[in-house]
């Protein structure tokens, strides 16, 4: 029936990861939970589902005396877990949860079929695509055996448990590493760690564990696909080695077929196109619902409502939905006016300004929060919507544009290097340098520094000058000479003093960046980056049922502040930290709530995942891990 129970392994769609060299073996691409529309969609489905249940005279009696608000919450939690939206579920197993209903009220398999029918009818009423309905049925169907005590052993158990999986992994990787086409994907990989990760994943995929914390399959293989050319043929080779391994171990063909049924679908997940933001939000029904709530908020806002006087709001809602569908990747075309053109009259005649834009953006975020959209998706929406402010109101020209663009910068670089090479104190630093390439690199850097490009592929200033400092004695007085030549160059070109001052304001701070190694705090992006990471990190912590209880009764705003202060200190952004020692700060949690090292590992995993979601480079993530890991001893050993 799936109404009050926890989920056994049989209800979880499993996958395997034979192809990932040096990566975590992850869950499938976008989970069914995400593709259905997330929490908002599941909550809506549960409401309609129970309306149908309670209107069914054969099923309603099973719920007599039940707190239906609590029941709906439990059902939503179960479906969130079963559909891949959570890695843990704290309820009973399905048999235990339904045992009393079976023994005392006569619950049987025909009732299960009625319930399943109502679930399918609910999804169709919500216009869920048939392929997704089929996926739901594939997950829900096997729970019948679990509920009525007919549950089979997991594939993990049938294969022989942990010892068998570990033995298979050893032989499997021997075959992989002996394969000349596959071995290069593992260059530089710690194979002992890789074997452990693979065994952990297969244990999860085959039903031996209910949790696994790796990345999605698409994300974990992305770098291998883009940089090393991993493709579907390599997947087939890996899968072949897995089958050969199982045969070598004498596994029956029947069980091998079960393994293949688990492994096969992961190919699509690994090589699948990342779902669009439109799809991740829940598609057209979700966007339409959001637009309705959004405009209700707009029209209730006394500062914004006057801009819509005389507007056909039904048509306006349709136009907004069309635009958001396009902006979020749900359509490749948009037939409306440009943002500047469509807002021009409001700006000129009604005084629309950037503060109004910020109010509107706030209502959009509030709408998504009301709909229980995940924070990471809200951040993606903000990243799409934010730049439209500039498109609507125009932008101040960059210093690059004010100086005259690419031609002007290139002209300045030529004169600048003529001066440098004529300076006897500076010219020796360029001995043996390809000056044509050097000019190009300098032009690229100045284009970036002056706002003409959003990206710069060169080294950090410290890294690119380190050798000159250590081997040739480059120092701050040389920097001042170079800066003087730059100012003289600009004056020779007739650049105004006002613009020269803007250039100096940009160039001046680079002295410290060149001669002082940046801290990890600075390399991560400073305070805004740490604060953003802490917010996402605690969202993950509070969604983890094993960790959230440690924060019961805690002022989370204060906790976030304390965590940000500690990380700022630990990463080198502050020389002082006013908090307790780590052992003292965690002592009560250890003694009274059972905090242990496995909880630390979960927390550390959430921190790494947070940094990966924020696009932090692996090298910096490794630096963070090197700072964080020693704190385990400090927390549990009484040191520090």
From TrEMBL:
<dbReference type="GO" id="GO:0020037">
    <property type="term" value="F:heme binding"/>
</dbReference>
<protein>
    <submittedName>
        <fullName>Uncharacterized protein</fullName>
    </submittedName>
</protein>
<dbReference type="GO" id="GO:0019825">
    <property type="term" value="F:oxygen binding"/>
</dbReference>
<dbReference type="InterPro" id="IPR012292">
    <property type="entry name" value="Globin/Proto"/>
</dbReference>
<keyword id="KW-0575">Peroxidase</keyword>
<keyword id="KW-0408">Iron</keyword>
<keyword id="KW-0676">Redox-active center</keyword>
<dbReference type="GO" id="GO:0046872">
    <property type="term" value="F:metal ion binding"/>
</dbReference>
<dbReference type="GO" id="GO:0034599">
    <property type="term" value="P:cellular response to oxidative stress"/>
</dbReference>
<keyword id="KW-0560">Oxidoreductase</keyword>
<keyword id="KW-0813">Transport</keyword>
<dbReference type="GO" id="GO:0045454">
    <property type="term" value="P:cell redox homeostasis"/>
</dbReference>
<dbReference type="GO" id="GO:0005737">
    <property type="term" value="C:cytoplasm"/>
</dbReference>
<dbReference type="GO" id="GO:0008379">
    <property type="term" value="F:thioredoxin peroxidase activity"/>
</dbReference>
<keyword id="KW-1015">Disulfide bond</keyword>
<keyword id="KW-0049">Antioxidant</keyword>
<dbReference type="Pfam" id="PF01152">
    <property type="entry name" value="Bac_globin"/>
</dbReference>
<keyword id="KW-0349">Heme</keyword>
<dbReference type="InterPro" id="IPR001486">
    <property type="entry name" value="Hemoglobin_trunc"/>
</dbReference>
<keyword id="KW-0479">Metal-binding</keyword>
<dbReference type="InterPro" id="IPR009050">
    <property type="entry name" value="Globin-like_sf"/>
</dbReference>
<dbReference type="InterPro" id="IPR050924">
    <property type="entry name" value="Peroxiredoxin_BCP/PrxQ"/>
</dbReference>
């Amino acid at each position: 029936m799936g109404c009050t129970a926890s989920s056994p392994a049989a209800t979880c769609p499993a996958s395997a990861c034979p192809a990932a060299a040096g990566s975590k073996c992850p869950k499938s691409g976008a989970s069914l939970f995400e593709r259905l529309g997330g929490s908002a969609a599941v909550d809506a489905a549960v409401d309609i589902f129970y309306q149908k249940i309670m209107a069914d005279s054969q099923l309603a009696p099973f719920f007599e005396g039940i707190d239906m608000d609590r029941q709906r919450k439990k059902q939503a939690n179960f479906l969130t877990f079963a559909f891949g939206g959570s890695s843990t579920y704290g309820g009973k197993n399905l048999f235990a949860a339904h045992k009393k209903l079976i023994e005392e009220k006569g619950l049987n398999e025909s009732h299960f079929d009625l319930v399943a029918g109502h679930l399918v009818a609910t999804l169709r009423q919500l216009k869920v695509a048939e392929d997704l309905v089929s996926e739901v049925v594939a997950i829900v169907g096997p729970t019948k055996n679990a509920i009525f005590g007919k549950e089979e052993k997991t594939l993990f158990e049938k294969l022989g448990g942990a010892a068998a999986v570990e033995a298979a992994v050893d032989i499997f990787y021997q075959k992989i590493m002996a394969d000349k086409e596959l071995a290069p994907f593992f260059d530089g990989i710690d194979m002992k760690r890789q074997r452990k990760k693979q065994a952990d994943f297969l244990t999860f995929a085959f039903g031996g564990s209910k949790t696994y914390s790796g990345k999605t399959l698409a994300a974990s293989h992305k770098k291998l696909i883009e940089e090393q050319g991993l493709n579907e043929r390599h997947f087939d080779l890996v899968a072949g080695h897995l089958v050969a391994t199982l045969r070598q171990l004498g596994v029956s063909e029947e069980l091998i077929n079960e393994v293949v049924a688990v492994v096969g679908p992961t190919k699509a997940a690994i090589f699948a196109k990342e779902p669009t933001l439109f799809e991740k939000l829940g598609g057209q029904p979700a966007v339409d619902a959001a637009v309705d709530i959004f405009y209700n908020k707009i029209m209730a806002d006394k500062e914004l409502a006057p801009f819509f006087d005389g507007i056909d709001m039904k048509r306006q809602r349709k136009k907004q939905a069309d635009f958001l569908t396009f902006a979020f990747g749900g359509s490749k075309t948009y037939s409306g006016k440009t943002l500047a053109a469509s807002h021009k009259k409001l700006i000129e005649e009604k005084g629309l300004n950037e503060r109004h834009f910020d109010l509107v953006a706030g209502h959009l975020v509030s709408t998504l929060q009301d709909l229980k959209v995940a924070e990471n998706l809200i951040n993606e929406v903000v990243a799409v919507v934010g730049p439209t402010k500039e498109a609507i109101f125009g932008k101040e020209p960059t210093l690059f544009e004010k100086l005259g663009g690419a031609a002007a910068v290139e002209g300045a670089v030529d004169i600048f290097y003529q001066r440098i090479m004529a300076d006897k104190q500076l010219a020796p630093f360029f001995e043996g340098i390809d000056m044509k390439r050097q000019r190009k690199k300098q032009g690229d850097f100045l284009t970036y520094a002056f706002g003409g490009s959003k990206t710069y592929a060169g080294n950090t200033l410290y890294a690119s000058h380190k050798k000159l400092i250590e081997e040739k004695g480059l120092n701050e007085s040389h920097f001042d000479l170079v800066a003087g030549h730059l100012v003289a160059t600009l004056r020779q070109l007739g650049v105004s003093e006002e613009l020269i001052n803007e250039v100096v304001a940009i160039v001046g701070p680079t002295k410290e960046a060149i001669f002082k190694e940046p801290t990890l705090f600075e390399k991560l992006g400073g305070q805004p980056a740490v604060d953003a990471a802490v917010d996402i990190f605690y969202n993950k912590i509070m969604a983890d049922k094993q960790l959230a209880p440690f924060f019961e009764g805690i002022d989370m705003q204060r906790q976030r502040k304390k965590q940000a202060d500690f990380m700022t200190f630990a990463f080198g952004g502050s020389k002082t930290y006013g908090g307790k020692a780590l052992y003292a700060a965690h002592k009560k949690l250890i003694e009274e709530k059972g905090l242990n090292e496995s909880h630390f590992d979960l927390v550390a995993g959430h921190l790494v995942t947070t940094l990966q979601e924020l696009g932090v480079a692996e090298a910096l993530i490794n630096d963070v891990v090197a700072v964080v890991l020693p704190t385990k001893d400090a927390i549990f050993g009484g040191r520090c």
